[in-house]
Amino acid sequence: MLTSVQTPNRDFTAETSGRLVRSLVFFALLALMLISLPSYSATQSSAQSIDPELRNALKDAVNSSESFEDKYDAQVWLVDMSARLKRYIKNDKQRLELLSLIHKEASRAGLSPELVLSVIQVESAFDRFALSYVGAQGYMQVMPFWKKEIGRTDDNLMHPATNLRYGCTILKHYLDKEKGDWIRALARYNGSLGRTKYPEKVMLTWERHWFVNY
C-alpha cells in the first residue's frame, strides 16, 4: 500500500487488479533496461520576510534521511512515470534515479509525487542546472537565501537530492499554512499569492501529464 499523501481532490491508492498488470510491466521494463534501481520557486518569499516555522522545518528536513516505506509499490510507480519522463530525460538510469529521488522526497514531505513532478516541469522542465533571472536554482527553483537562513551555506542547490529536499519541504509548509488549499499554496511557492496563473498552470500540467488513478 502506498503511503498517504496529499493530493488535490484525488485518492492516491492502489487497485488490486491494476497492481498485477503494473508489476508485470515493471519487471519486463527492468529486464529490458538491465539496470538496478537505487534505494533511495521561483521566489519562495524574500530573505527580508522569513517565516520562522518554515526555516525550522527546512533545517530539520535537510538533516534527516528516509527511504521508501514500500519499495515494491514505489518501483511499480517508477515504471509508469519513467515512460512519461522520457521526453525530458533520455537516459534510462538517470531518469529512474531522479524519479526515485522525487518519490522519496515527495513522500517524505507528505506530498503527491505527481504534483511535485508537475511543479518541476513548470519550474525547470527537468533541467537540474536551471537558473532563473532572480537566482532561483535547480529542479524546483529554490532561492539560495534559504541556505543562509538555516545555516547550511555550503549546500549545493543544483544537487538533485538537496534541491528536492528544500523544494518539497517549502511546498509542504505552504500547503499546511493554507490548510490544504493547493491554489494558494502553489501561489505562495511561486511568490505570486493573490494570482492564479501559476497554480492553474501546475494543475493543468498535472492533469495532462502526471495524474494517476491507481
UniProtKB/TrEMBL annotation:
Record carries keyword Membrane: yes
InterPro entries: Lysozyme-like_dom_sf (IPR023346), Transglycosylase_SLT_dom_1 (IPR008258)
Entry's transmembrane regions: 20-40
Domain Transglycosylase SLT span(s) in chain numbering: 101-197
Keyword Transmembrane: yes
Pfam families, alphabetized: SLT
Keywords in alphabetical order: Membrane, Transmembrane, Transmembrane helix
Family statement drawn from the similarity comment of this UniProt entry: Belongs to the transglycosylase Slt family.
Protein name: Lytic transglycosylase domain-containing protein
Organism, as annotated: Thalassolituus hydrocarboniclasticus
Lineage, broadest ranks: Bacteria, Pseudomonadati, Pseudomonadota, Gammaproteobacteria, Oceanospirillales
